[in-house]
Amino acid sequence: xxxxxxxxxxxxxxxxxxxxxxxxxxxxxxxxxxxxxxxxxxxxxxxxxxxxxxxxxxxxxxxxxxxxxxxxxxxxxxxxxxxxxxxxxxxxxxxxxxxxxxxxxxxxxxxxxxxxxxxxxxxxxxxxxxxxxxxxxxxxxxxxxxxxxxxxxxxxxxxxxxxxxxxxxxxxxxxxxxxxxxxxxxxxxxxxxxxxxxxxxxxxxxxxxxxxxxxxxxxxxxxxxxxxxxxxxxxxxxxxxxx
Length: 243
Description:
11 helices
C-alpha cells in the first residue's frame, strides 16, 4: 500500500481544478443546491457530534464549512482538524474559520488523502462533505483513501459522509441527472469560469454510486453498522459507518 501511496502525487487530475475555482466555490454551491448544502452540512455536523467525540477530522474540508459547523455545534470541548490538498481552498477555509469561530479553534493541514499524516486510531470521528465522490469515483486510489480513513479512526469511531447520491425512483433520477447536466453544469461553468470543473462535477454526480454500493464499499473496508439517510428525495444522502 505504501508504494502506491508514494506514486499518488505524480498524477493529480483534480489538482488544478480545485485550485482554480475556490474564489466563487461557496457561491456556486449555494446556487446549485438552492442553499440546501448548508442544512445538509449542519446535519452532518450533528451526526459527527452524536457520540461526543474529542477529536474530529474533516477530510477534503474544502473551504471549511463542515469543520466550522462542528465547532459551532459542539457542546463540549472538541479538537477539529480540517484536511485538504488544495492550498487555495485551505487559505479560504482558514480565513472563514477565524471569522466564524475565532483563531486557533480549527487546525488546517495540507496533504494527501491516501497518506494521512496522523497516527492510527487518532480521531473519534471523521467527517467528509461532498468530497467522498472525488476520493472514490473512478479513482484508482479509492481503496487506499478509505483504508486511511479507517486507519486513523479509533475503535467505535464514526465516519460521516454527506454526498450526492442516486434517487431510487427512475423518474426522479432522470430529472436529477438532467438538472446536473444542464443547470449545475452551466451555472457552475459561468460563475467559476472553469468549464472542466463543473463538467466533472455534473458527470461524476450523475454517475456516482448508489447508497447500497457505498455501504458495500465501507463494509469491505472493515466498517460496521453502516446506515444511510436520504436527502431531497435521494439526490444526496448522509452515510454513517462505525469502525
